[in-house]
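#struct-pred

JT: dropping the chains for the assembly here, can someone run the whole complex?
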Amino acid sequence: MALAKGLVAASATPLILSILSHRDSYGYAIIEEVRKLSDGELQWADGMLYPILHRLEDRQQIESYWGASENGRKRKYYRLRKSGLKELDEQRNNWNKLHAMLMNLKGGKACFN
Amino acid sequence: MALAKGLVAASATPLILSILSHRDSYGYAIIEEVRKLSDGELQWADGMLYPILHRLEDRQQIESYWGASENGRKRKYYRLRKSGLKELDEQRNNWNKLHAMLMNLKGGKACFN
DNA sequence: TTGATATATCTAGACTATCTATGTATCCTA
DNA sequence: TAGGATACATAGATAGTCTAGATATATCAA
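RK: done, full complex below.
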């Protein structure tokens, strides 16, 4: 069962911010981390991640700097900024509220057609 | 603080399906119920709800029938169908997974700029 | 040295789906 | 009879993802 598009989209931003709240990271590594964290259920394409990173940078919620791996390949690292942490807190808050609403509505009738 | 758009969007469908899993309802009442359930935080415009209902009906996850209120005003009621219940279960499942991921990632460094 | 795979980033444009704005109509109350 | 609540509908703007295509370097094996 594939995860619903809308939900994947809605979780992308808070997931990225969460990961960056632990340590600075870069695009390729973020995709790997998300894949592992989700047991392979979230397989982000790079082309979907980068625009989000760019948007978050435009909004000044994260900032970037160039770094390099051991073998010299360059990487663009991202660091969470204060306003990004605020955004993360809010989004997590919202997730909690909506999650609670949805789960509280659990149960119901058993007869369908 | 307004709820993020993407999240509101992603929660709309499962919320509607959840409400209909308890009892048949119609557009106007669903908006009211959502407003109450969310303590006023989710104020859906009718123009956003109806297209979703129509889409769910197109997908055969819900079905509609005309009814009337006590005073004779007509209402279009919606009933959850089997495939809609299945969809609801899946979406709730997805919500749980992503919610768990997000919350497990909680915590992190404390220094920002 | 050549080809394959992994690492690494980027953007244009298609696509999906909400959401705003607007229109219609009825009932109730003052 | 005017205003507010109830009730449904759709066209089009808008936003934001996601696909597809592009570029480039490092490593390893044949």
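JT: nice. The domain at 7-104 of chain A is CATH 1.10.10.10 (Arc Repressor Mutant, subunit A). Chain A touches chain B through 43 residues (CB under 8 Å).
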